Amino acid sequence: MHPPTGGLRLALRSRTIEHVTSAFDDIASAITIAAIGPQSRAPVGWPRRERPLRRWWPRRARRRTAAPIATVPAVLELPQEIVDDIVALASEEYPYEACGLLAGPAGGDTATRFYRCANAARSARVYTIEPRDHLRAERDAEDNGWEIIGVVHSHTHTEAYPSPTDVAQAPDPGWHYVIVSMRHEAPVLRSYRIVDGEISEEPVGRIPR
């Protein structure tokens, strides 16, 4: 056999280099695939469609709005003897508005004492607790381990519902605001909470004698 001529040797050498280059290309492609994850390999000559990299960190949890907690409306507990005394005072002071203060255990909704107070305004439309009576009530409540938990007044010609003046003068959002109306033949007693100008009625429970 005759050795290949110079031109043939060059052709064989060129073809060998092409095979080696192609092999290196395949190796480089395999390394790339292993580095960035499996991707679809398109046939030679086709444009490769890159897949988006997958996110491996957890997605941020969606914030949930807390469900409103159901609340049971407060019930003002009044012993029947206090109810009777409130109505009696309203009748005695008519045609002027009567007023007084309620005391009971701290943070509770049960009245244990009703303090009659003079209406310093001496009016049929508004009331002002006499300061000396207020001080007397606070001192007695403190001596008994109670605190002032509410205020009482009467309406002589209107329903038992807080007037704009009552709302504006409400001193404490934690107090019970008791109103007894003398408009009808039978007195009507109701109680409210007044917080930031908002009025909400609360049930009144009467404790038997």
What does this structure look like?
The protein is an alpha/beta fold and 209 residues long. The chain has 2 domains: 1-36; 76-207, Cytidine Deaminase, domain 2. The protein is built from 4 helices and 8 strands, in the order αβαββαβαββββ. The strands form 2 sheets. It has a 6-stranded mixed sheet. It has a two-stranded parallel sheet with strand order 1-8. A hairpin with a 6-residue loop joins β5 (176-181) and β6.
Helical content, roughly?
A: 25-40%
Give the integer mean of the pLDDT values.
78
Provide the β-strand percentage band. 15-25%
What is the name of the CATH topology of the largest domain? Cytidine Deaminase, domain 2
Envelope shape: globular
List keywords for this structure.
Cytidine Deaminase, domain 2, single chain, 209 residues, globular, 2 domains, two-stranded parallel sheet, 30% helix
Summarize the structure.
The protein is about 30% helix and about 25% strand. It contains 4 helices and 8 strands.
Write the layout of secondary structure elements.
Blueprint: H1 6-36, E1 76-79, H2 80-93, E2 99-105, E3 113-117, H3 131-143, E4 146-155, H4 164-168, E5 176-181, E6 188-195, E7 198-202, E8 204-207
Parallel strand pairs: 1-8, 4-5
Antiparallel strand pairs: 2-3, 2-4, 5-6, 6-7
